[in-house]
Amino acid sequence: MKMITQTLKVLGLAALVVLSTSCEDKIELDLPDGGTYFVVEGYITNIDKQHEIILSYTSPYFDDAPQPKATGAIVIIRDNDGVETTLPETQPGVYIFAGPGEIGKSYQLDIFLTDGGHYQSSFETLANEVPIDEIVWQLSEDEPDEDDGQSPT
Questions:
Q1: Would you state the pLDDT for residue 19?
Q2: How far, in Å, CA of 148 to CA of 102, rounded?
Q3: What SS3 state is found at 108?
Q4: Can you spell out the DSSP letters for 15-77?
Q5: CA pair distance 107, 16, nearest whole angstrom
Q6: Is the Cβ–Cβ distance between 77 and 87 less than 8 Å?
């Protein structure tokens, strides 16, 4: 009986060693690079600060390099009164709109890239902030307790 117990322990230990070292297959995904797309990031608020408009291009999923920036573009913000502001490029791909937008005014972004690309947004109105009426928090009896290990039904 003692010999069977020792044999089972040895077999169990061997099985544990095999199971813990056998699942190390590296999977290589062959994803297509896809196209390169132009990206515009930014917004204008009524806060008196410098607003950044960042122009860049998409990069492949597994590429660790930073996103390529769209430099040397002409970026214009136009309001509904026809006032145009050409934004300066302060860093590669970063264009600055200094000052606040005006609530109720509409703004349009016009971008001319060095490769001849031209992008123009529609006019968007800077809306007034919506006041928060109330904030409510309530514990639901249907929510599971973190310690009981039960899932929600």
A1: 66
A2: 53
A3: strand
A4: HHHHHHHS---------------EEEEE---SSSSEEEEEEEE---TT--SPPPB--S-EEEE
A5: 66
A6: yes
Tokens 């006032």: give the residue.
83
pTM for this prediction: 0.67
Distance between CA atoms of 34 and 41, rounded to whole angstroms? 21
Provide the residue type at 77 as one letter.
I
Task: Report the alpha-carbon distance of residue 128 to residue 73 in Å, rounded.
Answer: 31
Distance of alpha carbon 26 from alpha carbon 61, whole angstroms: 18
**How does pLDDT run across 16-54, given as a tens digit for each residue?**
666 666 556 777 777 777 778 999 999 999 999 999 999
Distance of alpha carbon 119 from alpha carbon 150, whole angstroms: 52
Q: Are strands 106-112 and 84-87 parallel, antiparallel or unpaired?
A: unpaired
C-alpha dihedral, 80 to 84 to 89 to 90, nearest 10°: -80
